[in-house]
Amino acid sequence: MGKADLHLHTNLSDGMASVESLLAYVQNETDLDVIGITDHEDVRGGLLAQELAAKHNYRFEVVPGAEITTRQGHLLALFIEQTPKIFQTLEQTIESIHKQEGLAIAPHPLSWLTRSLGKKSIDRIMRRGEDGIMLDGIETANASIAGQITAKKVRFLNEKFWKLPELGASDGHHLVQVGSGWTSFEGTTSQSLKEALKLKKTSAHEGRNPSLKEIGYSQIALGLLWGFSATPRQVVRRIRGENIQ
Q1: Could you give the angle at the alpha carbon of 151 between the alpha carbons of 150 and 155, nearest 5°?
Q2: pTM here?
Q3: C-beta of residue 74 within 8 angstroms of C-beta of residue 115
Q4: Which sign does the torsion angle of CA 220, 222, 225, 226 carry?
């Protein structure tokens, strides 16, 4: 069984590690087979990470992605090459992701600690049926505090009503958090993971979370300040016409 952490951030958005440092950490300190770089509103980090991992012949694969702010909350876009527009409806964003043959995943659902999809939004999408505007998975194990506070409810709702493929992820913003949540699947490649999600043959897991002391209080404070500005910084870049893949 392979292991994947598909929700990681670099310092291109609100993470505290560079792309290069994150890749080295995954290579030397984890047993992950696949990672997803999901910087806020920006796929550049994921594409760079994918390129560098191949160049250095790392033992794991990188899935390029982004965490997109929709009008209803955050949405993970995985297996993409272009960043979807910000502040579209959930339906419009899912459609944009699917046009790239990417996957749309609900991160830290129902959480009130960060922008998250609520039950009404997920219910609405699930009622659409077979028109292609569907979620491709949901985080039932998100190791962040934002994810932990609603995890039990999310697991119940997904098992009873939504029945979406489940994912586990760290939502890591600091290196020591990487791999604290993960998705298990048959195989070890990003393509086998994508197929497992489509077949609903994944499992979500959460391991030991690093303490605040292990992360470092100063790093946490800096991370919060950096995080609050992540989406506004991307909005400004778009207004200026800077290239955001």
Answers
A1: 120
A2: 0.89
A3: yes
A4: negative
In a domain? residue 135: yes
The CB-side HSE value for 210 (13 A sphere, CA atoms) comes to: 18
Q: Which range of residues forms the domain containing residue 19? A: 2-239
Question: Which candidate, 180, 175, 116, 102, places its Cα nearest to that of 142?
Answer: 180
What's CA 223's distance to the chain center, in Å?
17
Alpha carbon distance, N-terminus to C-terminus of the chain = 33
CATH code (residue 221): 3.20.20.140
Specify the length of the chain in residues: 245
Give the phi and the psi of residue 64 in degrees, each rounded to 5.
Answer: -70, 140
Q: How many other CB atoms sit within 10 Å of the CB of residue 72?
A: 20
Assess if residue 225 is contained within a domain.
Answer: yes
Distance CA 132, CA 115 (A): 24
d(CA 43, CA 245): 7
Give how far Cα 8 sits from Cα of 83, 119, 163, Å: 16, 24, 24
Total of domains in the chain: 1
- Per-residue exposure over 81-91, b if at least 16 CB sit within 10 Å of its own CB, e if not: ebbbebebebb
Give the model confidence (pLDDT) of 52-83 as tens digits: 999 999 999 999 999 999 999 999 999 999 99
Q: 84 in helix, strand or coil? A: coil
Please tell me what DSSP assigns to residue 137. E
Average of per-residue pLDDT across 132-154: 94
Q: What does residue 93 show for φ and ψ, rounded to 5 degrees?
A: -70, -45
Indicate whether 121 belongs to any domain. yes
| Spatial separation of the C-alpha atoms in residues 234 and 245, rounded to whole Å | 12
In angstroms, the CA 112 to CA 136 distance is 22
